[in-house]
Give the backbone structure.
Amino acid sequence: MGHQAADCVSRPRGLRCLPIMTKPACPACTLDDVLEHSDHWECSTCGHEWPKEEAPEVARVVKDANGNVLAEGDSITVIKDLKLGGSQVLKAGSKAKNIRLVAGDHEIDCKIDGTAFMLKACFVKKA
């Protein structure tokens, strides 16, 4: 399919086609004279306002130090000694069962020997 001249921009080496940003029609009056705001649309004809549809969330993939995908409820093993502050150390080989995956830079929420920890996935392997 060809592009119309209005769809393309002139460049020194020819035409470069750009995607056209389409605005939705007003759900109240069905006209397409719509104003775009940061979080909503507004019809300039009838004044109707409606929220923009948010992009669906992409499922987050968390991988351990070996590249294995971790899931809720997995068991993990710490692969190196981790300093916890002061003189406390979480030893390599410590195991956690039934992990939870959370948002943030410390992706794993778990309990090891009854103590709650937030760990980065790069310091654990799937057990």
Observations:
- The first strand starts at residue 8 and ends at 11.
